[in-house]
Specification:
Family: Belongs to the KhpA RNA-binding protein family.
CATH superfamily: K homology (KH) domain
Number of helices: 3
Number of strands: 3
CATH topology: GMP Synthetase, Chain A, domain 3
GO molecular function: RNA binding
Order of helices and strands: HEEHHE
Helix content: 40-55%
Distance between the termini: 18 Å
Keywords: Cell shape, Cell wall biogenesis/degradation, Chaperone, Cytoplasm, RNA-binding
Organism: Aneurinibacillus soli
Strand content: 25-35%
CATH class: Alpha Beta
Subunit structure: Forms a complex with KhpB.
Amino acid sequence: MKSLLEVIAKALVDHPDSVVIEEVAQERGKTYRLSVHPDDMGKVIGKQGRIARALRTVVGAKALKENERVTIEIG
């Protein structure tokens, strides 16, 4: 899951070396915290949050196949 999120995030940004994904296990599943370079924040979020929503949808679909609950936080 983390590798999928990393590949997509690095493809979106201008500074792929600054992409950091932290995995946090919780009671109800996993939370992935995605951090990017401040200049790339808009590219990851997109207009009206469309890119972020698409990112959550793709990762969520993979999590559903693996019978997991996943949350993505962008910051």
